[in-house]
Amino acid sequence: MSNKKILLVDSDREFIQPIEALLTNEGFEVTICSDGVRALQEVNRIEYQLILLDIVIPNLNGFELLKNLRANNKTPAMILSSRDDIFDKVYALEIGADDYLTKPVNNRELLARINAITRRTQAADRLQVNKVFNINDISLCLSTREVHCQDKLLKLTGYEFGVLHFLILNAGKVVSKDSIGEYVHGRAVPYNDRSIDMHISNIRKKISMFVDGQKIKTVRGAGYILLAEAI
Predict the structure, then answer these.
(1) Nearest alpha carbon to residue 171 among 124, 218, 136, 223
(2) Percent of the chain whose pLDDT exceeds 70
(3) Residues 194, 144, 38, CA angle at the centre, nearest 5°?
(4) pTM value?
(5) Are 184 and 177 in contact (CB under 8 A)?
(6) H/E run at residue 152
(7) What share of the chain is helix, strand, coil (3-state, %, to 5)?
(8) Mean pLDDT of 99-125
(9) Which domains can be identified in the chain, with CATH numbers?
(10) CB contact at 8 A, 94 and 66
């Protein structure tokens, strides 16, 4: 991807300065916004490769900023926050965050996660951007990032879209939680992490609003499988 622009949304100058230096040294062009309203205006003005944002920022907090972004913008976003509560992490993923890293951040880990997001974005770009997957009453369009079930729009979060896309790519095959985590976040999930189970459950509920029958089956001790045909 030729776009090397990153938007860093944070109000802590002591945190911003070393992160800006790190990213600049890696060849990124970094724009800094200290509040959520300005960040929203900036994203509507310029196309960024990635948005890094804190939760606690003036005028429009990180969660509200992310929800506003996801209304009409698909730019990948990573939360960088000192808040280490699992509920904050899960909520951020539910409303469309692509990753969540707790401060203080390790520079190598931050760069690795940025590169993982970049690789996924590049992989999607290499696919036909207008590619539409149709399987078992589910239609997923990569270019619009929309999912329909029997012509009804499913309102999925960014994380749920990524999970469902991976299941569709592997329809008829059992996929592990680790493989889902690797695809969506570029890393395996911790042993006791239940977030993928929760998001699978949410996807099932949203699909069941429009069609009968099980689409995603749990394979105990192995993972999940998206059935290629209705049962």
Answers:
(1) 136
(2) 91
(3) 80
(4) 0.62
(5) no
(6) strand 152-154
(7) 40, 20, 40
(8) 84
(9) 5-124 (3.40.50.2300), 132-226 (1.10.10.10)
(10) no
Distances from the Cα of 28 to the Cαs of 6, 126, 218, in angstroms?
A: 7, 22, 41
Residue 110's CB is within 10 A of a number of other CB atoms, namely: 19
Q: Which residues contact 219 (CB under 8 A, 6 or more apart)?
A: 174, 225
Q: In whole angstroms, give the CA distance from residue 193 to residue 184.
A: 14
Give the torsion through C-alpha atoms of 181, 91, 131, 44, to 10 deg: -130
Q: Which amino acid would we find at residue 122?
A: Q
Q: Cis link prior to 76 (omega < 30° from 0)?
A: no
Place of tokens 């990180």: 62
CB 148 within 8 A of CB 169: no
Tokens 């239609």 — which residue?
139
Ramachandran area for residue 172 (φ above 0: left; ψ -120 to 50: alpha; else beta): left
